[in-house]
């Protein structure tokens, strides 16, 4: 620990104290958590839940454990340093968070929580103090009460701060699931809108009453499974109707209110998972839909060439590449097409189009050829009757031609070569397609 200089104390908890420190070797600011109990064996340190979980979890929204140091029977955790926690930021604000700010913060927390649950851990102590913030980045911290999802009962009665404790924990359920983390997320989400805890109970019984005051009295019979029945019998609240949540949280959208209701469901099975919560409309409002691609820019030089593959049959020799040569509509004499070899390729009088509409029997066709064929063998295909001119919309991954030599070679069809060939001298009634 001689590498670190303690700068200030950041907090003091039941298990340990947290300090801001400087690493002399790297000149990096870090957070050091010094455990209060003594540790005499390294294996004992490695078996701590906080160590086991943080060594397994690696996510941008989960605080990073950089190093573990055991010295003189004292244990130190070296974490990345985060400037504030969410509680501090909330108390320092002069105005409520905007919904966009809340959406950004909570989506990050849910992404970290989703990663945690998928990797077999749930936190059990989510609250604003355990959500660390630097600039616009928020990370889940303090895994001292974390537990493996696959672990079995008996579970600890006291988990999480009372205001964020799920009903099944308050009623001392013999077993609970990661859904208790989702309840805490719902309570934190509501608090970000109101800037105050939504369930500020002064005792566990009062905590249950505060929940009933917002979401109404549940059907206790449906909650009896796994609960401490003697404790449940001591609760004698009158029937309370659910409050109007839009009055309690007036600055929240209907999507936000709906998500809070789902997360704070009395029935843990009805709460969405972290991944499901991220799909809620609250996190998907205002998503930009990409605009359609603009038409390609008008080119001022060179003819326009468009190649289309037409499906004429299943045999390789039945597949042809069709080209239609068209002139501007103002040119009425189709015999002008025969003068193509004398035209400057840079002029815009010519447009090659794949729009075949009502072609005649005199249309010209070139068969596809592979690069291993002799390019000099390329010749004008015979004219086909109209029955061959079928525009197939089906795209086939392969059409049976040899794949060696890098596939099909259409370099011989470039306009510099095409304009020198008499092959191009043909006429066919067609619809000229001009590119913008």
Automatic annotation (TrEMBL):
Alphabetical UniProt keywords:
ATP-binding, Kinase, Nucleotide-binding, Phosphoprotein, Serine/threonine-protein kinase, Transferase
* Catalyzed reaction equations: L-threonyl-[protein] + ATP = O-phospho-L-threonyl-[protein] + ADP + H(+); L-seryl-[protein] + ATP = O-phospho-L-seryl-[protein] + ADP + H(+)
Pfam families reported in the protein's UniProt record: Pkinase
Q: What is its EC number?
A: 2.7.11.22
CDD domains, alphabetically? STKc_MAK_like
Q: Which residues form the Protein kinase domain?
A: 4-283
Q: Which stretches are transmembrane?
A: none
Report which superkingdom the organism of origin falls in. Eukaryota
Primary enzyme class: transferase
Any one GO MF term held by the record is: ATP binding
- UniProt record similarity statement: Belongs to the protein kinase superfamily. CMGC Ser/Thr protein kinase family. CDC2/CDKX subfamily.
- Which PANTHER family does the record associate with it? MITOGEN-ACTIVATED PROTEIN KINASE (PTHR24055)
> By what name is this protein known?
cyclin-dependent kinase
Species whose genome carries this gene: Papaver somniferum
Lineage, highest ranks first: Eukaryota, Viridiplantae, Streptophyta, Embryophyta, Tracheophyta
